[in-house]
Amino acid sequence: MDRRVVDALRAIVGPRGLIEPGTRALPYESDGLAIYAQRPELVLLPADTAETAACMKILHDAGVPIVPRGAGTGLAGGATPVAGGVIVGTARMRRVLELDVENRRARVEAGLVNVDLTHACKSHGLYYAPDPSSQQACTLGGNVANNSGGPHCFKHGNTSQHVLGLLIVQHDGTLLDLTAPRLDPLGYDLVGLFVGSEGMFGIATELVVRLVPEAPVVETFLGIFATLEAACDSVSDIIAARLEPSALEILDRLTIEAVEASVFAAGYPREAEAVLLVEVEGSEPEVAGCARAVRAILEQRGALSVHSARDAAARKKLWAGRKGAFGAMGRVAPDLYVADAVVPRTKLRELVLRTVEIARAHKLRLATVFHAGDGNLHPNICYDRRDKDELARVLAAGDEMLELCVQAGGALTGEHGVGLEKQQQMHYLFSDADLRQMCRARDAWDPARRLNPGKLIPVRVCEEMRAGSVPEGA
Amino acid sequence: MDRRVVDALRAIVGPRGLIEPGTRALPYESDGLAIYAQRPELVLLPADTAETAACMKILHDAGVPIVPRGAGTGLAGGATPVAGGVIVGTARMRRVLELDVENRRARVEAGLVNVDLTHACKSHGLYYAPDPSSQQACTLGGNVANNSGGPHCFKHGNTSQHVLGLLIVQHDGTLLDLTAPRLDPLGYDLVGLFVGSEGMFGIATELVVRLVPEAPVVETFLGIFATLEAACDSVSDIIAARLEPSALEILDRLTIEAVEASVFAAGYPREAEAVLLVEVEGSEPEVAGCARAVRAILEQRGALSVHSARDAAARKKLWAGRKGAFGAMGRVAPDLYVADAVVPRTKLRELVLRTVEIARAHKLRLATVFHAGDGNLHPNICYDRRDKDELARVLAAGDEMLELCVQAGGALTGEHGVGLEKQQQMHYLFSDADLRQMCRARDAWDPARRLNPGKLIPVRVCEEMRAGSVPEGA
Fold this sequence. Notes:
The structure is a homodimer of 474-residue chains.
Chain A: H1 3-13, E1 18-19, E2 42-44, H2 49-62, E3 66-69, E4 86-89, E5 96-100, E6 105-109, H3 114-121, E7 126-127, H4 140-146, H5 153-156, E8 163-169, E9 175-178, H6 190-194, E10 203-210, E11 212-213, E12 217-225, H7 228-240, E13 247-252, H8 253-260, E14 274-282, H9 284-300, E15 305-309, H10 312-323, H11 325-328, E16 335-338, E17 341-342, H12 348-361, E18 365-371, E19 376-383, H13 388-407, H14 432-445, H15 459-466
Parallel strand pairs in A: 2-4, 3-4
Antiparallel strand pairs in A: 1-2, 5-6, 6-10, 7-11, 8-9, 8-10, 12-14, 12-15, 13-14, 13-18, 16-19, 17-19, 18-19
């Protein structure tokens, strides 16, 4: 990289905000999907919006690709610098700028860690609802890029339903201030479009987000089942009964074993084939009524045992296994391929069993965790990436599982994004015409296509449009 | 208009689907905001997606402006052919194509009337949640264009939270099929962006929408108050108590008088200064608990009386006044200017009173109805548009109210859209840079800008971009 450009960037961010290639730059070679690691030319960690804007202007003028990055906890390669270029991270922008308790919203910097926002407003009885499993580490800006979900999004909705405004540094360093209250949508929904755009439309440095009041009463249930089918059927029954729990999570046997063997041990019986977590929240009579109905369903479906808790510490213990599941799988194998697919809820049971078959056919170990309420499956394949043959089988099995889910009327990703990983599978769901319309939307934000290149849209589709071989409107 | 173009269009839609200028075309000169009426060159009513696409191709090749139209119940001039051209209406596309009861979704044509979808799925215990006051007449396609709300959107969210997929006829007649299940967002959220784009991105001919299960128990409360302030304070208390009613609506004195003098008479006492409607839904214990708390708050705030009902017919009677309010105002004056602004809920009481002052200063009669739960005010000015002086005062008062609401941290429109009416006020909330980014998004869908020209984005901003006087990124 041109030294004059590097020097100009260092003059803006200072020595703390610039990492040159070397050992310190290693963590920036990939996100959680390490198999596609790639070395960045430079890593920038600006301290605020002004520094970000100044850096973006220089990079734009120099024609350098830019890869925005939150905490790097993504699982689809979204923050991997696949085309080289410079990583621009938000790690130094983690302030809560304003808490508006009365109107239940906060203005925060993009690098704020998800759970830290809840810590900051907890004393006011408020919290930030979307809760990805990585919430102890992932940033709110990264959540925006991927429209992240989490167990409680079943009731409260994904990130897009909680972002009210954004301050965006555009591709050339200009600012787009969309932080004016979007109490209701007004004009084209540019904020909504930006959420989930995986770093290809700019870098949001400040966010205005909704805060949600803590429910007066929360009760968590943990049902232990002898079969995965019985756990799935309980979920169907709960939804058919029109109960509205805030979370519905299932863990399968291998996940339970991994959890119990780890520091996250939650006391789940190891002979269980499935664990179902149900959380109910609301006023005392609401929770009491719903709780009775949930317990009756779990028992009717043959739960071996049903535990419940209202006290925060006891509830945390019931959740411990779920929250620690991904970490615990490190004990099973050195690498974990976290698949992410969505299926119509009515086909959940059938498709869970078919992913088990696919894994078996490829001789792979599968641990499944899923947001059962919204049909979001996470079949996790435990493997060792140094074993090239196993790695190839992992990728083949992952692709088969996705294709199966899409054929059943599902979607390619529930919450992890498309990133680098799934761009070649986008055509399972979208025609070339659809993808070209996405590319036109991209060009409206970044005409030179230097923001996070090689992600989300298959590169071929964008190349064909650039070559002009596609007539307008085709 | 070139006769060959008209003949080609007639060959596609047949004589039933084409209206030439004349008496039958009169209703198409405006939507509900009649003051800006303008004659269309032609009205087309295609029978399905294929006819719509064929018409759009011909109109594109002929370079004719196109104004999409649902039922014309809009209130911001969104369907007014301000730049001439051809109206393309969806009135003949009103089929329910598929009801998927198990997965709670429906595939429908865009011209289906909002309430007819609920009628179609009622026997399965499902309904379509967004319920604009015009739901007996407005179409689902029109709801998509304006991201419509309604009383129950306080709990269930606006149209954008209920649209899962769209089949879009683009500016040149090509199809964009975004109906594949969007169980979770995937790729850029083009469907979300299209919702609320006010007919400027294409014509959605088919929609996949969410259906919501009817709550087991619904209870409606009607509190009669001697002051508007007491009604507003009750709303604040209900929200502060973290109760979650599905609707919170207030009607002021003039509205009550109009309703009681009309066929919609609901038995509201005429001496009341305000009526507050609260609806609670859920399971029996949920509703019982919430109902006790709501009643206690209304009584504590000095309600003159509190009525409640669970039975559907009795509930309908409590709602009759609210649902008939806009119709009833026809008795007060020949014209009604329905303002639409949003304010932070914490400032509701103060701003309602200030809109009353503004109306008084302009010697206008104001009847206010509002979705109090989400801070969405509808100060309705009763007037006679033949009185040019009064009309000028109406427009001046409306502008003052909007500016006031925006200054208080609110928004320009809650649910009616920007349309023709508010494009000149968009700069109250957006900078030129923001508006130019909207224009770039528009160009990604309609590079020749022939779809609903003169709406939403101030014309000046688009013209400057076309003239190329704005450098890229500025």
